[in-house]
Amino acid sequence: MKKRFLNILLLSVFSIFILISGCGTKEAGKPRIALVMKSLANEFFKTMEDGARQHQQQFPEKYDLTAVGIKDELDVAKQMDLVEQMIAQQVSAIVIAPADSKAMVGVCKKAVDAGIVVVNIDNKLDDEVLKDKNIKIPFVGPDNRKGAYLAGQYLAQKLQKGDKAAIIEGAPNAFNAVQRKVGFEDAMKEAGIEIVTSQSGNWETDKANQLVSAIITENPDIKAILCANDSMALGSAAALRTAGKTDDILIVGFDNISAAQTLLKEGKMLCTVDQHADKLAVFGIKFALDILAGNQAVEKKETPVDLITAETLKQR
Questions:
Q1: Are 122 and 141 spatial neighbours (Cβ–Cβ below 8 Å)?
Q2: Which domain covers residue 179, as residue numbers?
C-alpha cells in the first residue's frame, strides 16, 4: 500500500510539473494570430492574405500566423466552423472579416469568452447584435459609406441631372454592403440622378452579369451601374459587352483588384475604390498585438479609402 501510495504521489507531482512547464512555455512563446477571411476566390481577400503573410515574414519574432478563408462568399456556416477550429486550437487572437455581420457575432463571442482576443476587420459586425449579446469587439476598417460616396460623386460629374442609374448591391446581411449602397445613394440623390433599381448580386460576378443583362433590357436608357465590389463590376462589364453597350453605360466598382484596374486602363470602367486590401489585415493584426501586449483598445479605428481612376493609376 505504501509503495502504491508513493507511486501515485510521484505521478501527481510529475503531472503538476508538466502542467506548470507547459503553461510557462505557452506564456513565453510568440502569440499566434488567426486571420479568418471571406472567399479566397475573390482577389481582394487573396491580396489581404498575401499582405498579412508578408508582414509576418518581416516580423517572425513577434507572432505566428494562421490564415484561412471560405470558398463561397456566402458560406457563413463554414466560416463559423473555421472560428470554432481556431478556438479549439487556442490561438491568441482572431482577426476576422465576417461573411455575415449578424450571424458571426455568436461564434466571435464564444472566442472572447474563451479568452481569445477578437478584432473585426473589413465588414463590421452588427452593433445591435453585439449589444444584445453584451459584447464589444473592436472594428478596424474603412468607412464604406464614404468610399462609395467618393465613387458616386465622381460618376455624377460624368452624368446629367435626371439620368438613370442602377445599384448592384453586395450581400444583404453584410454591413459593408449596406453602407456602400447608402454611399452610392447619397451621391446620386445629391446629383439628381434617378436610381431605377437596386438589387443584390451577393458579391458574385455571375449573379451581377445576370442582373445587369436584365436591367439594361428593361431600362435601355440607363447611363450607369454602381457595383458594391469589383467582382460584380466585372460581371456587369461582361453583360454590357455582350449587349454592345460598353461605350454607353458607365461602371463603378469597389476594391481596386487587378482585373478592375485593367478595365479602368481600357476605358471599360469609370472608377473603383481602394481600401488597401494588402494592409487591411495588417492593421487588424497590429491592433490585436497591441491588445495582447496590454494596451487599452479603442472600439474603432478607421483605415483609409481612396478613389481610383485611370488617371490615378497613371500617377502610381
A1: yes
A2: 144-274
